[in-house]
Amino acid sequence: MSALGTVRSIVGPGSYHYLHVPSAQAAFPKAETYICPGIETKQPQMKFDWILGDKSPTAWEKDMEQVLVRGSRFMSEVAFFHKPSKTLLLVDLIENIGDKTEEVGLGIKLWWKAVFHMWNKPRPAPEYQIGWKDKKAAKHSLERMLAWDFERIILSHGDLIESDAKAAAREAWSAPLSSDA
User: How many helices (H) and strands (E) does the chain have?
Assistant: First the structure.
């Protein structure tokens, strides 16, 4: 990692994505740590400098915008938009697993095909799909992201979305976006 430059920031972007923060902190003790709301209660011993929200920290405010995704009863996530590369960075808001995804085990394949019907269909994590408790808040967060000028999406789970990214996001989020709640 340090061959790329100085590591200044460590990010725990979602309430299910923080397990490697302590090892990153040990490897880069001078880096500041930013976490998604909820991690501080799940891991009260974890040291951090900033709880992320809708406003970008000064460390990356010139290049990145962010939004705290609201409305889910099971998970929290902060989505990021890297302005220079026009890239949306997501954790669980879209998962894109299918025929092109490498090293997918039989169990995941079965669940994604037969249970969740997400195989070859970019969709939010199942926890989002069954857990939108405040659809109005979710819709507001998702609409903020769709207003960004992104052309590609980097995901934590599955294949990147490198063409028609905005249309793919709109389709993935169609249920909460169509809500009048």
Answer: 7, 7
Contact 31, 10 (CB under 8 A): yes
Query: What residues contact residue 4 under an 8 Å CB cut-off, 6+ apart?
Result: none
Report angle CA 15, 17, 22 to the nearest 5 degrees: 110
Q: Is the pLDDT higher at 2 or at 101?
A: 101
Count Cβ atoms below 10 Å from residue 174 Cβ, excluding itself: 12
- pLDDT score, position 2: 63
Query: What is the pLDDT, as a whole number, of residue 159?
Result: 94
Mean pLDDT calculated for residue range 82-102:
95
As a whole number of angstroms, the distance between CA 67 and CA 101 comes to 28
Which DSSP symbol is given to 95? Answer: B
**β 77-82/32-35 pair status:** unpaired
Query: What is the pLDDT at residue 181?
Result: 59
* Strands of the sheet with 9-12, listed across from one edge: 9-12, 32-35, 50-51
Radius of gyration of the chain (CA): 17
- Pairwise CA distance, residues 52 & 153, whole Å: 20
Say yes or no to pLDDT of 133 above 80.
yes
